[in-house]
Amino acid sequence: MLLLATAVFVGSAVCQPCHPKIAADYAKTPMAQSSGRVTAVPNGEFTAANHRYRVANNRLFFDQGEANFDYFIGSNTAGRSYLFAREGYLFELPVTWYQRASRWDASPGYEHEAAVRLNRPVDPTCLSCHASRLQPIYGTQNRYADPPFIENGISCERCHGPGSEHARDPRTQALANPAKLPSEERDAVCEQCHLTGEARVEKPGRRFAEYRPGMKLSVLVTYLVWQNPPTGLKVTSHVEKLSQSLCLQKSGGKLSCSTCHDVHANVTKGREVCLTCHTVPHGADENCLTCHMPKTGTSDVAHSVVTDHSIPGKRRTAAGEPALIAFRGTADDRALALGYAELDDPRAGEYLKRARPADAAVLLRLNQYEAVLRTEPSNTTALVNLGVIHASAGKTADAAALWRRALEANPAIEGASLNLAKISPPTEARVILRRYLTFDPGSVAVRSALESLR
Ligand code: HEC
Ligand code: HEC
Ligand code: HEC
Ligand code: HEC
Ligand code: HEC
Ligand code: HEC
Ligand code: HEC
Fold first, then answer.
1. How much distance in Å is there from the Cα of 247 to the middle of ligand 5?
2. Domain-located, residue 409
3. 248 lines ligand 6 (CB under 6 A)
4. Using CA positions, which residue lies closest to atom 1 of ligand 6?
5. Model-level pTM?
6. Residues 40-82: tens digit of each pLDDT
């Protein structure tokens, strides 16, 4: 069989001349503006966990150092996170701009940090929901070509598929149109970014990054969610919330995100949509949304549902033991093993024993690092931990080689740097520790290791 040319991503600018109205409308939406290079940030100061932070002249100053604001994540509807690049490796800054309060504060997860940390790696998972056409460097955890993503925000092709062939010949080469897809494939277009669940487990030999609009996500990954969620736990994605609504459950795939949202124009329909399925049951003149899709205050927290998408009527209460289940279809032993393991739930153990195939993802959880590295040579967890096993057995040269490989995949792994310094002669140890501090100058452990060498 002869192969036809495969479509590749060409960028939203290519679509503009033939779809000018959609392109102009879409450019103004939060999704289109969800990431980019920083031009300027507001000045400000704050204190968190006894650390003083100051933002001035587009730089961050703190106790032990300073850092650049290179890229932003978030359109600034609720807020904005920032990334900085060093030697091509990307890290998250510990400060976030909270738009509603109009001020800087510690990023979620950094509020109580004992030291100001700059070592949180930005892997492609984070960027793939907020930016388009990523350029990760294979064999590293968080290194990218320059620029790390070619297109800001969510491009047309993230929802319609790679457009090179369509742009050449629109009449014979159709792109995916969510409105014409079967319901699972249609919903997958939004789920790739709006469904989080408790864990997302890749199927054996498959990668989430293979997803293209028109496909089912369930071919690539299993999303695990709680059945009878533990008390106090809140679902934080719009897809999960909507799936709890009777409107969705009882309407046979007719209700989708697009029923209410016109994503090109950032327009949301309310009452008139409800009335396409419901005859006015009560409160005829009222806006249905105030009672049935209420807002939970003005949340500043990224990744939380603000508008209740479960469309509640009478409250139903869940009963029974909390357990993980697949969001769609069924979860096999391997998916449950990896899901529970990610949540540090002891039930993982029993499923891990039965998990088939026992591939790198499973072997990592079983601490079989040598086997992991045969298929994933730059897995940093396996490299660091196998190094510890070797060093404990006196094989320091082998250990050193593994830790050096880990630091190539991501030079800001504190444990690998400290370990490597510990088994190296003082002059070399100093070089290793100083290099670490160029990435993460606030590290208390590395500073005191360096101090004790003096
Ligand atoms: C050279 C002009 C041209 C370019 C460039 C172009 N399109 Fe189109 N597109 C068309 C035409 C014409 C149609 C209608 C085709 C038809 O109905 O047969 C269309 C239809 C579509 C459809 C609907 C398909 C369907 O089956 O309903 C989508 C989605 C689409 N284009 C997206 C894009 C995206 C995304 C890009 C950029 C990657 C793009 N187009 C670039 C001309 C173009
Ligand atoms: C699975 C997809 C996904 C991943 C991964 C993800 N985000 Fe988000 N993010 C979203 C979605 C969807 C929203 C908006 C709606 C919501 O809260 O669900 C959002 C909202 C945000 C906002 C608020 C934007 C605004 O202007 O209101 C910030 C800031 C943010 N994300 C930062 C990050 C950072 C930083 C990372 C990586 C460390 C990240 N996100 C990873 C999907 C994702
Ligand atoms: C966040 C996902 C998303 C993005 C980004 C997106 N679209 Fe769409 N697009 C959709 C959905 C959903 C539909 C189907 C709407 C419906 O149900 O009628 C659609 C439909 C279309 C159609 C079919 C005709 C129409 O007007 O409905 C065209 C053409 C199109 N999009 C072009 C574009 C172009 C060009 C861009 C970038 C400027 C773009 N889209 C960005 C989700 C998206
Ligand atoms: C590639 C990832 C991605 C895809 C695909 C995607 N979204 Fe989003 N969406 C986001 C992110 C990230 C935000 C938050 C943008 C911000 O404020 O920075 C968002 C925001 C939104 C918002 C809030 C307001 C707005 O217009 O931005 C709505 C509504 C929304 N998405 C609906 C959809 C629907 C419906 C689909 C499917 C047709 C879809 N999204 C597909 C990532 C995505
Ligand atoms: C695609 C059709 C459809 C749309 C659109 C729709 N619904 Fe529904 N809704 C249903 C169906 C079907 C049921 C289940 C009815 C039953 O089982 O008696 C339902 C049930 C409900 C219930 C009862 C829920 C419960 O938990 O008891 C409420 C409240 C409700 N809808 C409100 C709304 C509101 C408000 C809107 C607009 C924001 C809306 N619906 C949009 C189809 C729809
Ligand atoms: C029955 C109508 C309806 C459906 C279906 C629906 N939404 Fe919404 N959505 C709304 C309303 C209403 C708002 C609030 C809009 C506003 O305040 O301007 C909203 C807001 C949002 C926001 C902004 C953050 C928030 O929580 O206020 C996101 C993101 C979003 N929806 C995503 C989705 C996704 C993804 C789907 C499909 C899984 C979806 N919505 C399905 C009605 C709907
Ligand atoms: C003032 C608040 C309020 C407004 C506004 C409101 N509802 Fe309700 N609705 C409720 C409450 C409360 C219930 C649950 C009643 C019960 O427990 O039996 C309910 C129940 C429902 C139900 C399920 C029970 C039934 O009667 O079938 C539907 C469907 C529904 N509403 C649709 C709508 C629609 C459509 C609108 C807009 C035209 C709307 N509601 C406006 C408060 C409201």
1. 4
2. yes
3. no
4. 260
5. 0.95
6. 999 999 999 889 999 999 999 998 889 999 999 999 998 999 9
